[in-house]
Amino acid sequence: MTDRPQGFDTLAIHAGTAPDPATGARQVPIYQTTAYVFKDADHAARLFNLEEVGYIYSRLTNPTVAALANRVAALEGGAGAIACSSGHAAQIMALFPLMGPGKNIVASSRLYGGTITQFSQTIKRFGWSAKFVDTDDLKAVEAAIDDNTRALFCETIANPGGYISDIPALARIADLKGIPLIVDNTTATPWLARPIEMGATLVVHSATKYLTGNGTVTGGIVVDSGKFNWSASDKFPSLSQPEPAYHGLVFHPTLGSMAYTFHSIAIGLRDLGMTMNPQGAHYTLMGIETLGLRMERHVKNAQIVAEWLEQDPRVEAVTYAGLKSSPWHRRAEALLPKGAGALFTFALKGGYDACVKLIDNVKLFSHVANLGDTRSLIIHSASTTHRQLSPEQQVAAGAPPNVVRLSIGIEDVADIIADLDQAMAKATA
Ligand SMILES: *Cc1c(COP(=O)(O)O)cnc(C)c1O
After folding, report:
1. Secondary-structure class of domain 292-427 per CATH
2. 381 lines ligand 1 (CB under 6 A)
3. Alpha carbon distance 390, 377 (integer Å)
4. pLDDT per residue as tens digits for the range 168-197
5. Is the CB of 371 inside a 6 Å radius of any atom of ligand 1?
């Protein structure tokens, strides 16, 4: 390897991996093993003391899973990463080192529906809470952060509407308040946006979506920038003070830029057990090899479909930030110059009933609760992914009852449009 920094598509294929040292296998083998034989008692002790990096038990680390974590860390420009059993697991894992009973996060009101439910309901069982704000109102964001706030959370391209978050502005507020900005980069992927370069501390992914890219894996990733000074205040004692759950180890600054990553493995994965499995990691690694090629086609198709929908008299509105009519168009151009993603909603004239008819009449599109597949996908968010939300939350999240969400695939765009055209004809007849 040379010192020259490698490009995105090279890293997508090579980062985190090398030919298998035991066999020379070129593709990353699926290390389907639970445990690893220690060289001797001293070696085992050194591993458990984090004095030497190596494999102990696959709930903590596994070579296939580590290859995936290291590859995504490289693509996001982070210091380290942790692969998890799902995107939702990754969100809990991301918060775990930061939070404690009585602590809160400030989160965008425009999030994946499941995340709003996880943050507004389920995390309360841990004594954590979330305050939701419109993150375009920077004054409201600042006002919502109090002495017990431990993170600010947003999505790069917010599901389902395709709204673009002002990551640099939110990062400045987080910096000012001495807390990390966590960005869910699932719908953008590092090919479209690298939140760490815009000032984010942590990036989370549902690897289930574009990273794997073909609807075969449920997985998640947490990437740490390695840049946050956890010892600057007494807000993050689990990282900056002797950690009783790891025989008094002070993770930061002892482990430097890897403090958060090691904490997440040594305590988070050890005790919460939200580990990714090696087979899932292998599929995701293969998916990532073509991430750049796929995203290029996803955004190209999405732009064409959104423009076609916008000029169609049967359509009331299209939310795609790649359209000049979008209030987020300029921000998309500034922050995501390669494209505004492939996820957006549109409102059909005829409201709820027309939306349901549309969904029942598509043929190429699949009606599923997923996104980021090679296949074009469609769903009515208000009655599915955002169903647990109140009507007010649905509107705030961009999922009112009269819109459908599209995840534009990489098929021939003429076929995607033809399918929508015939279904819209039936829905508005
Ligand atoms: C799907 C999704 C999640 C949750 O990920 P899972 O892998 O389904 O647990 C979180 N955030 C966003 C933006 C998502 O699209």
Report:
1. alpha beta
2. no
3. 25
4. 999 999 999 999 999 999 999 999 999 999
5. yes
